[in-house]
Amino acid sequence: xxxxxxIGLVGLAVMGxxxxxxxxxxxxxxxxxxxxxxxxxxxxxxxxxGQSIRGADSIExxxxxxxxxxxxxxxxxxxxxxxxxxxxxxxHLDAGDIIIxxxxxxxxxxxxxxxxxxxKGIYYIGAGVSxxxxxxxxxxxxxxxxxxxxxxxxxxxxxGISAKVADDKGQLTVPCCDWVGDxxxxxxxxxxxxxxxxxxxxxxxxxxxxxxxxxGLSADELHDVFATWNETELDSYLIEITRDxxxxxxxDGSALVENILDTAGxxxxxxxxxxxxxxxxxxxxxxxxxxxxxxxxxxxxxRVEAAKVLKGPxxxxxxxxxxxxxxxxxxxxxxxxxxxxxxxxxxxxxxKEFDWNLNYGAIALMWRGGCIIRSAFLGKIKEAFxxxxxxxNLLLNPYFKDTVLDAQQSWRNVVxxxxxxxxxxxxxxxxxxxxxxxxxxxxxxNLLQAQRDFFGAHTYERTDKPRxxxxxxxxxxxxxxxxxxxxNV
Length: 489
Ligand code: 6PG
Known about the structure:
Bound molecules: 6-phosphogluconic acid
Number of strands: 10
Helix content: 40-55%
Oligomer: single chain
Number of helices: 19
Structural class: alpha/beta
Radius of gyration: 26 Å
């Protein structure tokens, strides 16, 4: 073990412990610190035994044990605990030392902390870490942002412990970790990752409900369907675990998944993504619907009552089951493309708003392995932005355009069948609606502008005049010619 540790890690919950073990297995020396020292002792005597890991029983001991510039990674609950630890650490640190927050922090907090610590000469990195406990141990996806001056110092550890994907020669050498951008950019990218995770999960759930309710598929049959889908463009971690979930039996031999209460939890990152999209004026409809789908699932008692009185149509399906399953696969793929297209538009808008130089292809690569949304599909997104870094919407990339157009009829068939049978498909239908909205040259917003001008003199632009010229009509003859100011939020 080296005299001085390469990095200190605060917070010995499962993610923290696993990250330490991962770092030690890659040859780094790590100091472990936790508010209660008995946890550190237990760790040192247990999983950490015989490895290049030392413990610290005080903040002073932690700081003293580290090589310069000191690197301290916080794996504590997002919010106040992060501020509390920063406050404890700062008096013991020197200029140029680095604090890294690896939690699911809301990006405005990372914006604030980067600035506050910069004023004290300390570098702050807000790093999104994805992949759950197994990822933390074997190779997570890491999305660091903040003080770029600190990147050369932390790069070796971060890229060393991250997941790796194949290079041109098929060797697993490309790290799923790269510098994302200034201030809270790393946590912003992680937030969008989680929003996309919500969308992907909800789409899979809608496919499941359709196959179960409309086609009457059993858990074993669903296992087979997801196993087959995982061999297609849908190949991904979430499809893979879904396949395995359907095969998992409860003690009585029934499928465990069918014995789980249908109320979803959420820790807030999907909501943040939706709220940010509203703030930035980006139509992130699929993730929004995925968050709301969790909200409506949580109203279990009310739904049970409503189900008694609000009767829908009886399930009626006469088509070819196999063909419909393939339609669902295509609808899922097309909807997933829409979800990523929307997420990337959010990135583009955030880059403008916050003056971040986001590398869209690199983000896709960071998500290609290690994280919860890892999938083969992300390689195609990387290629799309390599071909055209200014691509305004993924739907305009030739591969994604062709895939969506090829899936279009199946997609309409699936959403139509779901609606006719009264099966809710908020994300599949939101994706199709976005697709139709995006490809419609003339939307009915002309009427909307007329309504706004009618009741509030909010003005409108004309089809026969240049953009930026605003007109007001005295629609009733009772209003004046005075228009209200023309501004948009
Ligand atoms: C990851 C996950 C993780 C997230 C959980 C729970 O990338 O490893 O996104 O960060 O906390 O998935 O999120 P919800 O409780 O909101 O579903």
